[in-house]
Each structure stands twice: as C-alpha cells, then as structure tokens.
Hints:
The structure holds 2 protein chains of 2 kinds.
Chain A: H1 12-39, H2 45-73, H3 78-82, H4 84-107, H5 114-120, H6 134-149, H7 153-159, H8 161-168, H9 171-183, H10 186-190, H11 193-221, E1 233-237, E2 246-251, E3 254-261, E4 264-269, E5 283-285, E6 288-290, E7 297-298, E8 315-321, E9 324-332, E10 341-342
Antiparallel strand pairs in A: 1-9, 2-3, 3-4, 4-8, 4-10, 5-6, 6-7, 8-9
Chain B: H1 16-42, E1 51-52, E2 58-65, E3 71-78, E4 84-92, H2 100-110, E5 118-128, E6 131-135, E7 143-147, E8 156-169, H3 171-177, H4 187-195, E9 201-205, E10 211-218, H5 225-228, E11 235-245, E12 248-253, E13 260-261
Parallel strand pairs in B: 4-6, 10-12
Antiparallel strand pairs in B: 1-5, 2-3, 2-5, 3-4, 5-6, 5-7, 8-9, 8-11, 9-10, 11-12, 11-13
Amino acid sequence: MSVEYSPVLWNRQKKRYDLALLGFVALYFILFAGFHLWLHPSTSPESLIIRSTATLAFLLLHVILVIGPLCRLNAAFLPLLYNRRHLGVSMFIIALVHAIVSLIQFHALGDVSPLVALFTSNPNYDSISQFPFQIFGFFALLILFLMAATSHDFWLENLSPRVWKALHMMVYVAYALIVLHVALGVLQQEGVPLGATLLGVGMLVVVGLHVTVGLKTDTNESKAIGNAKEGFVPVCSLEEIAENRAKVVILAGENIAIFKYDGKLSAVHNVCKHQNGPLGEGKIVDGCITCPWHGYQYLPENGQSPPPFTEKVKTYDVRVDGGTVYVNPKPHPEGTKRPPAVIA
Amino acid sequence: MSEQDFYIGYLPKMPNGHWRKIRSFLAGVGVLAIVAAFMLVKGQNDFNTASFELGKPTVVSGILTTNPVPLLQVVQGNDLSGQAVIQSILLIGFGKHGAEAALDSAAAKRKMPLEGKLLTLEGTLIYHDGKTLLELTKGPAAVLQVEQAQPIRRDIERLPGYTFTGEIADPKCYFGVMKPGEGKVHRSCAALCIAGGIPPVLKTKLADGSTAYLIVKGGNGEAVNQAVLPVVGQAVQLSGQVVRYDDWLVLEWDQSQAIETLGSLMILDAPMCTEKGLAAVTYSSN
Lengths: 344, 286
C-alpha cells in the first residue's frame, strides 16, 4: 500500500520475484537457441528471434492466466499473484520484440508502409484457412500494450478500479486472438500434430482451471434469503469461521465477507478496492482485514483503510444468536461504521 | 494452512509453507520450460540450406539480358565441345523490389541502354538448389562498370504445354533471404516482394523427387505479378507453355485458365507430376 506513486515500490519479495522471472526468461532463451542451433543449424537469426520470443511470450501468458484460479484453489500460490504485473509487462515486452522483428522481416522494405502491408498483403479475408493470421496478433498486441501501459496503481486510481479491471479482463480476448494467430499461422505452416497438441493442452489447462474455480464459487458461497428475519439471513454457525478469518456468502447479489476477531464479528464487502481481490480469503492482521492479493488493509468495523490510506468498502450488519451467524445483506455506504456483533 | 502462513507481499519474509510450494512450482515451470523448448524446436520443419550472404558483397561480371526477366549471364568456362557454359544469375533489387528500377536508373545515369552490355555488378549473393540470385543492394550504384560485349548465344527452347501443381513463391526469400521463405507464415512477405516487381516463381515437385522452379509470366511473356498475388503461398494448379531460357524455365501461364487453389500446402509433400518429358526437368503433360 502507498499514498504516493512511484514507478515501482520495490521490496525484497518483488526483487526475488523479478530475479526468478529474469532467470526463467534467460534459461528459456538459452535453451531454445541451443536446441535450435543443434537441431536446425540452417536456421536464420531472424527466425530464431521470432520463434523464441513467440513461444516464450505465449508460455508466460499461460502462466499469467492460471495464477488467478490457482490462487483461488490454493492460497499457497498467492506469492505468484503479488507481482503478476511485472510478469505481464515482461510478457508484453517479449511479445513486442516478436512483433517488431516479424513486422520488419515480413512487411518492411516494400512498396507500402509495414503497417499498411500488415493489413493488405494477404487479401484472403473471406477465407478461414487462408485468413491473414497476423491481424489477430496485431490486435492481441494492442490489448497487451494497453494493459502493460496501465499496469500501475496510478492508472488504477485514475481510470477507476471498475474500468481498470474491465480493461485488464481483456486479457482473455487477447488470449483468444493469440490462439487464432497460432492456429491460422504457424500450425498451418508446420503441419505437425505436436503444435496443435501443445496448444490444446494449454487451452485445456487455462479453461479447465477457470471453470473449476467458477463452479466452486457458485456452489459453495451462494445462500438463499427466503428465511430472513427482520432482514437478517442465517449464514453459518460460529464454528465455521476461524479466528481472524472470514466466511464468504453471496446474499441478494451482495458478496459479503464476515470476519471473526477478538470475540467479535464484522461484515464487509468481499471485493478489495485495489484490484477486486477477495477480502474474505484474507486475514485480520494487526487489527485490519488484509487482502490476500496485495496486502491492502481495512478496519473491520467501518471498512476504511487505516489513515493515511483512503480506500473504503461497504459494510453490513451482523448478529449472533444461539451460535448462528446472521447477516443483513442490505449494504451501508462505503466506510460506514457498524457495531460488530459481540460473541457471548 | 496455519495462521502463520498468511502471505503479505510487502513483508520481508515469505512464510515457509508458501516458499516450499512456490519452490516446487518454480521447479515445475523450469522443467516445463526445458521440455517445451525442446519439443517446440524439435517439432519444427527442417530449414533448407539456402544462403544469403548478408554483409558480404560480391563483384560479378556478365552480360545483362532482361528477357524474360533481368538476368546476368556469366560465362563459367567452356564445356568439352568448346561451348561456353553460361550461368544465369537472377537479378533482384534491394528490399522487396525487382531489379528494374535500379538498372533503369543506372542506364539513365550513363545515358545508354544496358541490355546486352557487359556489366560489372556488386551485390549480395543468394543461392540454393542450383539457382543463384544477386541482390543489387546498393541500387543503381551496384552497377560498377558497363562495357560493350559480344552477344552470347541463348539456348531458348519452347516446350509443350503442361499443368503444374505447386506453390508460387518469391525467389528472393525462397532461395535464401528468409527461412522459411515459403508457406502461410511467409505469404504476406512473398506477396509484397512479387508486388514490388520480383518475378514470381512456381516451385513444383517432380516425380523423381527433385524440385523444379519456373518463373511465371503471361502467355505473351508479360509480367503477371499482380494477377498471381491472391494465390501466393498457397497450393495451386496452373497451366501454360514452358519455355527454357538457358538454365531457367519460364511458365507462360495461359490466363484463360484460372489458377486453381488446392487448399492445404501439405499436398506438396507428394510428387505432383508423373510423366517424364524433357531433358531439363520431368513433369506431366496436359
């Protein structure tokens, strides 16, 4: 958390994260180049650059896409999510190298400018198999550029978390475009089942993990409100909530996290103001609800970040009766102080 | 997960439980990188042994002819019967352009036609599978010297009409500048090269497993670069008269018969022609 902007708020774990990323990128390039020169000595440097950057960027995109669902399934993966934006920007830079070298190689030095040539040199827009596959790559890169360029809390604040999140959800559009770019490009060129198999496995992992998480959220957390009394809905027993942890429920469309701490219960909106992280999967640390994604903190009684921070989330009324926890799903405005339910 | 295992990124130390899991994950991703890199590299089609001597200019002398395309005819000595052995080097411009602009500019500068003259050219060699090309890398300045010369006897032979199946490629990339210089991923580049005046070449596989390269022209010897652009880089079938100009074959495409596209380039792995016909190459007759 920070009250002022700086290019990167370095800390020890970010440095370790970036070192590991740098090592991985270097390892991949060295291996790819080594295998390439060993198995295909007649290759050209341009092809080596184009193919190594393409495969690495696509591999990293898969890792980026699976980090979110992995963290929802197992909190041990959260350290991978903490600095994911550096992973994303690195992936974009690698993809950009692929795009620039390809643009120069295939589209420069002709009668028209490279960007015009990109859209006009293959006119088969009316054919699926002969479609100019580069177009998909171009638009995917455009999305990745917008994401990389706004991959900073300055833009998160100024675009608003909602717009920022919507923009960054475009990564799934970019992924689909890249799948088309690969399927209608190099897979047709190489004509071997290996590439199609790897692409299929990658898609299966990405889609499978997202569907698994989606199913888990839908079936485990939604509660009916038919048995509400005075607006309060029974959601769980006291024992179901661990000390300093939360129970998450969806009531009347409200995503609510009920925290138990110091003999009390408080309920807040389950969505962190920073990047929509799941507060209910966080923990009370130093008296504050702490988001598991990036450590943003809120006071449980009023949903406000401790000064000097200014983030606020909605709060809800909670009751305890006979060992059962009740929540009123009608939200109070963000940052509204509500008395916690005291556990007898 | 224990209470002590809650991860907060900005704290100096990662909980041990997280570190153990992350360490295993990173090791797995590292192994995946090794396996993926090997499989992706191994799974690629082989690259041909074509050469482009980038950054290594060569000076070569020969007689210029522009029939059917700009060629530099270089005498490589005499055969046993005393006949001159000619190698025709296909001339190409810098970038994705034909050689005509550079040659025309050089001719204008010298105020004389270059056709039939002995030219000394500096350029970058491109060669593969018995064919040699010279890129006039410096444009008009590639023409170092122009001298009068005795004409060389051309060996031009008109052959019967044939139908060929193959891929139309640009010879500059295919014969060495790019790897691969053919197929879907290279289609845009080939189209730009051919649109820029580089003569289209049909690459076709023969019954004996060898590959023939035919410069594609119109029925009257006219350039058809614009007409073939929509089918560049695809498997196609086209018919026409074959004419041999020394060591190059030209297919004078009969434009009354449209070029038929055949879909997948994979069919090019099979021999396209079945009958033996000519001394220079073998391919099927109509």
